Amino acid sequence: MGKVCTRRCGYCSVKKGRPQALDENEPKNLAVAVKKLGLKYVVITSVTRDDLPDGGASHFARTIRWVKKLNPDTQVEVLTPDFRGDTRHLDTVLREKPVVFNCNIETVERLYPAVRPGGRYGWTLRLLRYSKENYPEIYTKSGLMVGLGETWDDIRKTLEDLREAGCDILTVGQYLQPTKAQMEVVKEYTEEEFDRIRELALELGFRYVFAGRWVRSSYRAWEVLKP
Asked: Which of 120, 145, 183, 184 could be 10's S-S partner, Cβ–Cβ 3.0 to 4.6 Å?
């Protein structure tokens, strides 16, 4: 949905401002690319488009339809914006039946005003809960960055909130400052600490957990659905 994001998150170096109109050919073009590359699992994501009436939900839906039409054996995971917590927009996406719905919580609730001033902690939880309650056959997924100043209590509460919302899959990775214009790294986590987070998440009931310095939202995403 373009290169320009309507949010101004403190951790992200994607260009911010007023986006251009959607490229109506993008859904088909993406599907053609998937076919040419012979991909069997794709993760479709985007910038946040708060300027659009539905946040871009219908564009996601068209893209899923095109990918499935041209690649009937390809599995589709979507990583969507939070749609400002509007479940009507999420419903537009989920009706196309992706195998995984991902919406990243990104950081702990206490840090949201500084890290995600345009977002709300509860919006992501609302979407995850709606997906699990209304489309239980779709895996739910979320991602958390660490190193922005959160405490262990913050991490535990975030994981508990995600599980309460029905989140199945969790990714946890180290925040790395993209440029000097973004927030500084407060803490570098060790692999032992990532192991501790992984163990906690599994104890809380997550079905799949990927935690480590280099883990990002799409890290080994296909492994969850391997036969």
From this structure: 183
Structure tokens at 75: 């599995």
Q: Would you say 44 and 64 are in contact if contact means Cβ atoms under 8 Å apart?
A: yes
Distance CA 109, CA 157 (A): 9
* Number of other CB atoms surrounding residue 205 within 10 Å: 12
Separation of alpha carbons 88 and 33, rounded Å: 29
Distance CA 226, CA 224 (A): 6
- The residues with which 212 forms a beta bridge, in sequence order, are 173
What whole-number distance in Å separates Cα of residue 170 and Cα of residue 27?
27
- C-alpha–C-alpha distance, residues 197 and 194, integer Å: 5
Question: What is the C-alpha separation between 149 and 26, in angstroms, rounded?
Answer: 38
Strand order in the sheet with 75-79: 41-45, 75-79, 100-102, 139-146, 169-174, 208-212
Q: How many angstroms from the chain centroid is the CA of residue 227?
A: 24
Ordered mean pLDDT values, 10 residues apiece, the chain (227 residues): 96 94 98 98 98 98 98 98 98 98 98 96 98 98 98 98 98 97 97 98 98 96 87
Residue 133: phi, psi to the nearest 5? Answer: -75, -30
